[in-house]
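Holo prediction. Input below; ligand is 2-(butylsulfanyl)adenosine.
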Amino acid sequence: MQQLISDLEKIREALRYHAHRYYVLDDPEVSDSEYDELYDRLLAIEGENPELITPDSPSQRVGGAPIDAFQSVEHRAPMLSLGKCTTEEEFDAWLRRCSTELDRDIGSLVCEPKFDGVAVNLLYENGILTRAATRGDGTVGELITANVKTISAVPLRLLSDNVPEWVEIRGEVYITIEDFDAYNRSAAANGERLFVSPRNSAAGSLRQKDPTMTAKRPLSIYCYSIGAHSDDYQPQSHLEAINDLHKWGCRVNEFVERCENGAACVDYIARLGERRDGLPYEIDGVVIKVDDLGTQRDLGFYIRQPRWAIAFKYPPVDASTTLLDVEYQVGRTGAVTPVARLDPVQVDRVTVSNATLHNQDEIERLGIRRGSKVLLRRAGDVIPKIVRVVEVGEGALIEAPELCPSCGTKLTRGEDEAILRCPAQLSCPAQLQNAVIYFCSRECLDIKGMGTQRVEQLLKKGLIKRNSDIFTLKKEPLVELERMGEKSAQSLLDAIENAKETTYPRFINSLGIRNIGEDTSAILADRFPTLEALIAVDVETLLEVDNIAETIALNVVEFFAIEANRDEARRLVELGVHWPESTASVDSSLEGQIWVLTGKTSRPRTEVKSLLVARGAKVSGSVSKNTTHVFAGENAGSKLAKAEELGIRILDESEFNDLIE
Ligand code: IVH
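Structure of the complex:
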């Protein structure tokens, strides 16, 4: 029997060790199947000897029976809330108040993320998790021990032997954004209720009456502080307590950081703010705490809030609003994409009234109806996106249009494409307008002054009907236009004149062949050095070229098979668009080289790239040991440093120009 008990304890030890590596440290040592094998052995022995089961055995995570109601339990020390600030000034005022009240320097601070989850209080007695409770009103919470035990990152027994007789550990239970999305997707597929946010989903999971339901939810935890504890434990600082938690096998966050003063905290707040969108879990701010626990005691409390800590809240990046309608926009290559029209709402200090919906599949996935309340998210400065439907509206479902909203042509949908298309090409006004805007853009002929509004105006007035008409524009009708005088008409004509001198890759790019951007244009320019050669090319020949896939080959051939496209390309040349021979008749002198561009250069980056690609080089975004050359412009930073470290050949602007010429 003694042998069996000791074997059993060894297996449990091993399981605890591996679960800690996997769930807490995110650094597993054994495969899932090895772990499962060990776990099965534990279940087998415990099955035959139920009297040997202990409450901290890894088998006891999902043991609790369903309950009718949660019991109340008093926390040994109250769970406090935090004062808030939202600006640097408010934060500074808090710091000053601390110093004034204390009448001495408050010492260093600790910054950490403010997790947007559910606070829990875990009581460990002699290292064993004996109860877990929600925050409740801060004094009395609800007992959710069986549910919390199902969270694999919560140790049932603390790892070290050197633990306090008893200790309350506080943490935030959360679910990752990815797991939350996956849960809602499957709930939607099964017709179940959806959660509105990851936080809401974690809270709902913890309040399940049946712990086997909680066990199915991918919950995790970050432990962020210690509550009441026995006298045998006397940490000196918050950071020391965090380190102890880590030693005891509790999951602590990687971004907990000591800051020596207020300025360092402000810097931390900015840095974490920049990373916020990329984090796998939701945070809504930063918690700043006085590090020294003696100083914390001296500062004390204000009603339910400690004076020694404050939450800096980030502006919300999520907002909910009503979806009024969905409109369909036609892009330059005929792709028809849905755009949501919203009741205007502030997101991240910006008023938002439109949001992208990508494609019809996305609309169906979200189950959107007109009048639905939707949750918006703005990540960085990209166009906001609809994350989910919070409340399904009364209005009609959004159905895909059958006809092009611009020209009325019947839309098509490729076999494996989620995207609807208008096949009318340039006879569709929307496609024509977007094609002209693209033609004038920086990566094509770069005609200054031909922005969206100007293009729209010229098309409406009938002064242009296709790209090449731009080069036939005369001064008189231009001067007559609204918001255009003698002077601006002349500068527009000058810009048009200047744009005639271009490069061959840019010219190809400006033709607007579907799926062909700057890089492919440069490759085509390299292999087919004259326009006539390009017009005459067939699919087989194109497929022989490196980096030209079948769809692209087909796109090129189909484009030039249309007479109007051939005529338009030739007309551009007839009207004076030209490029230096040197880029038209190119070589493959740089074949096999891998270049990285960094720093500021006087030529646009796209041009540098085209020059290199046209000579057979590849251009990559980051320096590695495969990089052969680095073009370093002004103010080059870390890429240059890395290149120097790796001994890669570095060229400055004049060396680069010599090479190209
Ligand atoms: S410390 C007195 N640290 O914020 C100290 N709380 O508004 C209070 N929270 O209920 C707790 N992340 O749920 C602390 N890193 C963190 C936190 C954090 C999230 C939550 C916690 C608490 C609420 C207070």
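The first helix runs from residue 2 to 24. That is the main takeaway for now.
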